[in-house]
Amino acid sequence: MIDDGEANEIKRDYLDILESLLKLIHAKAKEKGLDPSKDVHIYSSSSKVYQGTLGESPSKNLLTSTIVENLKKALSDPKNSQGAISIKIGNEKVFHIKNGEVLTDKLGLAPPSQPNKFVSNERIYSVEALQKQVKVLQSKLQAQQKLVESIKETQQTPESLSKLIDQVAEMGKSLEKQQQLIENTQKALEKVNERSLPQIQNTVLQNWVGTVENQVKQTAKNVFERLLDALTPEVTKLRKEIASLKSQVNQQVTSLKDEVKYQTDSVRNELNQQVNNLTEELRTQVDGVKNTVEQKMKGVQSAIDNTRIELRAAVDDVKGQAIEQSVKAMLNILGKDNPDGSKSFKSTNFDFERLGDNVIVRAKNGETVLTDGVLSPNVSEKQLQALDKVQSVVDMHHQIENNAQQNSEFRAIKR
């Protein structure tokens, strides 16, 4: 039979366990960004058995030692828990377990359910799953290595090398992603090792909570060590092999680029030389044609000039002779007989003189305009126009004489 002292000790243990659980829920809620000042609601099956806030008297407390034990077992050993326990903060359900299966654990109250996995708000990655992913990368790497070896023996196109570069780069990205998954898992495990629970005064409860916490940390430590032992060497080796593969591919690409550049430069130089030669030849031919055309144009121009000069000379010669005949006729009509046997006549612009068959026309300034039927090269257009009128004077005189003769003959007939 339990005496009063033992009953009081059991009650204190039950109350201490309840307080420690409430402190744990309060700390986890604060860590996850929930409002810890809201009431905590605890349900056993579908019945609410507790409602209250840490540090204050609960508004409802129907908890029994049996329910508290079930709650403790649900949080420390959920796989062996029986019945249903759920916890709410305000109206939000943060924990729910039913017959050993954790259905909701937003605060991370329950320990890891398997020794090789870590449960957090991050995705769960087992060591075996990570190892499998590393092996897949190793298999891809071996296939790429064989492809690189085949490239060394056969001529490759820029397109095939570009495709290979993309494949190696993609494999490097996969390795980086895999490394990030491993690092995230390691960080999550480190957080488990670093976390601490609120200080508990009850010795029995403190020992129990400490045992559970140590088990969680030991599990995380084992997983962490397995990650280091199983994956680190493989990932390091894989990283080096990918770096080596990238280097080989880059060397192949550089070699191909150099070869293409050399061939391109050779073709460009040869083409430039041919273009220069053709340009020079065309320039020589064009210059020759240009010179020939210029020479012929000069010859034509010279012939034109000579023809013009000859034509002008012929015209001047004919005009000079015509003017001379007009002047002779005028002097016969208007000329004054001089003692030396010459005839002369002076008009407004010229002095006319005839000695024998020689006719001389001078301008008023004394310059000779016409001599022996040849016009002076200095004769002006105005002077030529004036000399052309001499024939008009001769024609007018002849018309007058003809009219007078006709009148005389007419009068003689009338008589």
Notes on the structure:
The protein is of the alpha+beta class and 415 residues long. It contains six helices and twelve strands. The protein has helices at residues 4-31, 65-76, 127-153, 158-194, 203-334, 381-414, and strands spanning 40-44, 47-52, 60-61, 84-89, 92-98, 101-105, 336-337, 343-346, 350-355, 358-363, 368-371, 374-375. It has a six-stranded antiparallel β-sheet, covered by helices on one side. A hairpin with a 2-residue loop joins β9 (350-355) and β10 (358-363).
Helices and strands in order, then pairings?
Elements (H helix, E strand, L loop, with lengths): L3 H28 L8 E5 L2 E6 L7 E2 L3 H12 L7 E6 L2 E7 L2 E5 L21 H27 L4 H37 L8 H132 L1 E2 L5 E4 L3 E6 L2 E6 L4 E4 L2 E2 L5 H34 L1
Antiparallel strand pairs: 1-2, 1-4, 2-3, 4-5, 5-6, 7-8, 8-9, 9-10, 10-11, 11-12
Helix pairs in contact: 1-2, 3-4, 3-5, 4-5, 5-6
Helical proportion, percent range = 55-70%
- The secondary structure category is alpha+beta
Residues in β-strands, percent: 5-15%
> What is the 3D shape?
rod-shaped
Largest sheet: number of strands, sense, barrel closure: 6 strands, antiparallel
* Rg, nearest Å: 66 Å
Distance between the termini: 209 Å
Number of helices: 6
How many extended strands? 12
Low-confidence runs (pLDDT<50, min 5 residues)? 1-7, 114-122, 196-202
Provide the spatial order of strands within the biggest beta sheet.
3-2-1-4-5-6
Task: Give the mean pLDDT.
Answer: 75
Give the SSE string. Answer: HEEEHEEEHHHEEEEEEH
